Prior knowledge:
By secondary structure, the protein is an alpha/beta fold. It contains ten helices and 13 strands. It binds adenosine-5'-triphosphate.
Amino acid sequence: MTERTAEVAAGKSTMIHARAEGVTKSFGSTLALDRVDLEVRAGELVGLLGPNGAGKSTLVSLFTGGRRPTAGRVELCGGDPRDPRNRRTLGATPQETGLPASLRVGEVVDFVRAHFPNPLPKAELLDRFGLNDLVRRQTGGLSGGQKRRLAVALAFAGRPEIVFLDEPTTGLDVEARRDLWEAVRSFHADGGTVVLTSHYLEEIEALAERVVVIAEGRVLADDSVAAVRGLIKVSRVSLTSPVPLTGFDLEGLMAVEQTGDRMHLLTPDADRMVRELVKRNVPFRDLEVRPTSLEEAFLVLTGKDQK
Ligand SMILES: Nc1ncnc2c1ncn2[C@@H]1O[C@H](COP(=O)(O)OP(=O)(O)OP(=O)(O)O)[C@@H](O)[C@H]1O
């Protein structure tokens, strides 16, 4: 166990690896990030969760020095992420990675490792990310999932202290996804700091202890996985009723949507909602209950789906 690992294991680490303070980023008239505050301490594994266009990739690109904030301050390892000296211990996999098509997997790994003073041994890197069988293959001929695995592996080539993984498992099959999770877990167990983005709470749940929920450029929640699960656990109770539901004052109703003659009631507790409907003598037929998607839960959370 390294000194840092021991410190992290003992919960003593207060070192901030990445920090955003009042960060705003605009692209023309699009406000991608709106006064975001976030601190990532050494040894943490943080999941950034949010729907499409929430601002996750933009935040990652600010932390990794790819972009500059419009307002506010971003720090990586105590300094400006745009200064290469502060990126020496950084590893990153952006959402889309351009790999030189004519180079072989082994050559790309060699090329990236050569940029670091103390890289991970090639065999270990290939092994951890299941790339052994692909070493002699040109990257241009790899499948989307294989390219993704290589791109994520490259983030770990220089033995980083902190890695940013932007939707690392997109396009991976179940087995490859599990292998990748295992590699991330083992990096974290050795004291590494991880920030990963995802659309899926399940993915973040499999890895992270802390979830930062982002929607429309703002941090909506920063909490444990269990707390966030409670926050975004929304069910949809659908029914057909000959009468409008307004006026029934149903307890636990977060929002109502209508498609044709079907009414969809969004609620944190579907059982209670069904009891409410019966108690208040609401006439209904064809009752159906299902969990909502994360996107729907976010609409409710951001107040876009008012009753
Ligand atoms: N280079 C750019 N030029 C213009 N608008 C941009 C640019 N990059 C991002 N945006 C906009 O900023 C907002 C946030 O985008 P971002 O890619 O950060 O979201 P995201 O949460 O990563 O989404 P996804 O999950 O779909 O990748 C979106 O409205 C997007 O269209």
